Amino acid sequence: MWAARHYYYSLLLSLVRDLYEISLQMEQVAHDRAKKEKSPSQDPLVYSVADEETEWLQSFLLLLFRSLKKHPPLLLDTVKNFCDILNPLDQLGLYKSNPGIIGLGGLVSSIAGIITVAYPQMKLKTR
What is the pTM of this model? Predict the structure, then answer.
């Protein structure tokens, strides 16, 4: 239990670091995109609340996708940490899942680890 708890905290901190790096990358991509655009786009005159909410979500997801596409090591590290956290969550009883999900998470995490060993440029470098 002690080891699982500390491993869980370690993975949580790694995920927080990944989220911070993702936010920095998203900010950089948004800044670069704003510099490329010379004139503001013309918006239609009529909006509904639903359109504004879905437009915000779509633009956020597009920005997230572009950021992770531009920085694949960050995507790889985030997926690896997310898959790794499934095991201590189950061991500590915080989120029970079946053994198949934990095994699949371990498999994906192992493949991500192998990729970082085989291709050193895919290893996340923090600022």
Answer: 0.78
